[in-house]
Amino acid sequence: MEPTILYIIIGAASLIIGLIGGKFLFAKNTKKQVEEAELQAQTIIKEAELRGETVRKEKELEAKEKFVQLKSEYDREVNERNRKIGESENRARQKEQSINQKEANLDKQIKENEAIKENLNRQIEVVNMKRTELEKHQEEHIRRLEKIAGLSAEEAKNQLIESLKQEAQTKALALQQEIIEDAKQKANKEARKIVIQSIQRTAAEQTIENTVTVFNLESDEIKGQIIGREGRNIRAIEAATGVDLIVDDTPEAILLSSFDPLRREVARLSLQRLVADGRIHPARIEEVVEKTRKQLEEQVMEIGERTVIELGIHGMHKELIRMVGRMRFRSSYGQNLLMHSRETANLCAIMASELGMNPKLAKRAGLLHDIGKVPDEETELSHALLGAKLAEKYGENPAVVNAIGAHHDEMEMQYVISPIVQACDAISGARPGARREIMQQYLQRIKDLENLAMSYPGVEKAYAIQAGRELRVIVEAEKVTDSESDKLSFEMAQKIQTEMVYPGQIKVTVIREKRAVNVAR
Predict the structure, then answer these.
(1) Per-residue pLDDT averaged across 262-269, rounded?
(2) H-type helices in 407-481, by residue range?
(3) How far apart are the first and last CA of the chain?
């Protein structure tokens, strides 16, 4: 660093000399000025050399001080490193001593374990000898017992196992029977409770309908106009509507007779319009009947829409809604089909709510369960299977389809709502006043049904239940086997089908029960 400063100073001096020289040359290079400049330059050079020497000495002194400082720091680091190395060596020596001590202890322990092992081996040999002697004594004892009892050990063990097995089976059967009886009692009690609550919460109406409609007239003179010349008007009305018009001595009334309420309604409305208009002739009759039929179709659709809205059912296909409306003009054993379906739907919703299920789905299935009774075209299928087919065709839920098809046991029940719909249909159809049937005929049919079952050998009791929809037969277990029970049920169903007249279907259930009764005293 010192030579650099010296060079800088010499360079500066040379520059100054150059400038002075130039100045003197510029001033005509007088001799005196040149001498003064040289003298001045020499003075500056000497001062610069002195200053450079001073700076060099100062820097050398600083370097020596720095060297001493670095040397002392290095000595300290070396001493510290030596100290740590000494401590590490001490720890290593201590660990080595500890390991040596542990090795000595381990050798001592191994020697002790070997002594213990030898002792244990001697004890094991003694135990084996004693075990051998014990087995010999045990075999001798077993031979003596077998000789006394007259049984081998294997036979005695098998007898004991068989005895314990029979005792366990007896107790298990008793426990199982007790659990089943308890479950039946609770299930029957809960089922009765739910059914009673459902019936009590449903306001049922008396919905008996007849197959005859009375059309009232203002006077008997209008009868002649309705009959027409040589009866052409009445024949035209009957041909257009499919309804029989009965004109008798009943004052101011005409009877409209047909099994189809929809046709009777078309005929009634048509007659009402014709009488009000006064123009009654075959061409006018056909025109009015056709117009009335179209308006009635609109009314059917309106009834169906109003029904599903009142029940809170959404997303139903229009064809199904139209079929619901057609139920208003159908009856089943005197019970209006729409009222029956609405009542069944409400019962299903209540019962599903009591059981913690989906009430909307159950209500939907209850409303549609009899749509097979109002088809556009007659088929050979039963109304339950036809209804299931129609519901599936128009995109109903599989649970609803199954409930419709299974509510008369014509399809296997695959969803929980199926038995609910079946039960609610029975409740609505079997309640007092729901359907019209002469009491004497009903009682006679029930009695004939029970007598038919009692005519078979081996039958102990027979009961017609569910308003004659099911025949429950109890047979004697000693006289009728399980296979014979199946045959008996089939034969009874065939005989009922061929010999009796009855509404709907009759389910034949044959029960064969074996009871073992003992009294503990």
Answers:
(1) 80
(2) 417-430, 439-454
(3) 130
Task: Indicate if the alpha-carbon torsion angle 361, 364, 366, 369 is positive or negative.
Answer: negative
Q: How far apart are CA 173 and CA 181, in angstroms?
A: 12
User: For position 402, what pLDDT does the model report?
Assistant: 93
For the entire predicted model, the pTM comes to 0.46
- d(C-alpha 181, C-alpha 312), whole Å: 40
Collect contacts of 491-496 with beta carbons under 8 A, ≥24 apart. 491/456, 492/452, 492/453, 492/456, 495/452, 496/449, 496/452, 496/471
The tokens for 250 are 């009943």
pLDDT beyond 80 at 482: yes
Q: Of all helices (H) and strands (E), which one includes residue 297?
A: helix 282-311
Token pair in block for residue 247: 């004109």
Instruction: Count helices and strands (H / E) in the chain.
Output: 15, 8
Phi, psi of 82 (to 5 degrees): -65, -35
Residue written as token pair 């590490």: 88
Distance CA 478, CA 492 (A): 20
- What stretches of 258-390 adopt beta strand conformation (E)? 331-332, 335-336
Cα-based distances in Å from 398 to 219, 323, 416? 56, 19, 12
Closest residue by Cα to residue 449 from 503, 383, 382, 513? 503
Tokens of 316: 């139903």
Please report, for residues 87, 95, 333, the alpha-carbon distance to residue 91 in angstroms, rounded to integers and kept in the order given: 6, 6, 110
Report how far residue 385's alpha carbon sits from residue 254's, in angstroms, rounded to the nearest whole number: 39
pLDDT band at residue 434 under the 50/70/90 scheme = very low
